[in-house]
Amino acid sequence: MIFDLDGTLIDSRLDLAHSVNATRAHLGLGPITNEEVYRYVGHGAPELIRRSLGGFGGDAAVVAGTGYFLDYYREHVLDCTTLFPGVKEAVERLHAAGRKMAVLTNKPEAMSRTIVKGLGLGDFFIRVYGGESLPERKPHPLGVETLMREASASLMYTVMVGDSSVDVITARNAGIPCCAVTYGFQPETLADPVPDVLFDRMEQVAEWILSRE
């Protein structure tokens, strides 16, 4: 089982929004709404900052802004971030049933590991790969393929769990099913492409996985 992080396992919206607006303030810009920030999450920090700046300052501002954002966010990754309801219970149940689980996110790996460990999930995942862990990031299939190889898992017994079209496309590119959750950051993107299954709670995801014997 390969999980996305933001919007799937963790609700990091406020910390991301605060960090984006701190970056905008650093560059002399006013804040944007939290909801606007949430729409930009999922493609990695440089793209998040590029979209959040709305063309201000060109590539130089994106580079400077990304550096500031990462430094600021690194210090605030667990200020407001929490697990979504039912996530820990579902992960514990899957782990007890012997399922191998990993995290594949476009967030930087060190931050991702800090969050996963800080929220009590560090012992459940065989790997936590971030956007810079491999030469390609989601939606490229390399992350999925690497995790499958490391877990000695086949296409038939691997599934991607996410909350946006990025995760669905990643799964399609890798040739595996995608199970998506509706409570994430970008549920509207799940209309196209459509995931194989869609659930409202992580407990339902665990039940579905364990019923696929």
Question: What does the model show?
Answer:
The longest helix is centred in the first third of the chain and has 17 residues, at 58-74. Strand 4 (102-104), helix 6 (109-118) and strand 5 form a beta-alpha-beta unit. The chain has 9 helices and 8 strands. Helices cover 45% and strands 10% of the residues. The strands form 2 sheets. The chain has a 6-stranded parallel β-sheet, sandwiched between helices. It is of the alpha/beta class. It is globular, with a radius of gyration of 17 Å.
Short descriptors:
two-stranded antiparallel sheet; 6-stranded parallel sheet; alpha/beta; globular; 213 residues
User: What's the Cα radius of gyration?
Assistant: 17 Å
Helix share bin: 40-55%
Strand order of the largest sheet: 5-4-1-6-7-8
The shape, in one word, is globular
Which consecutive residue ranges, at least 5 long each, have pLDDT under 50?
Answer: none
Biggest sheet overview: 6 strands, parallel
Explain the layout of strands and helices.
Blueprint: E1 2-3, E2 10-11, H1 13-26, H2 34-40, H3 45-53, H4 58-74, E3 82-83, H5 87-96, E4 102-104, H6 109-118, E5 127-129, H7 142-151, E6 160-162, H8 165-174, E7 178-181, E8 197-199, H9 202-210
Parallel strand pairs: 1-4, 1-6, 4-5, 6-7, 7-8
Antiparallel strand pairs: 2-3
Helix pairs in contact: 1-2, 1-4, 3-4, 5-9
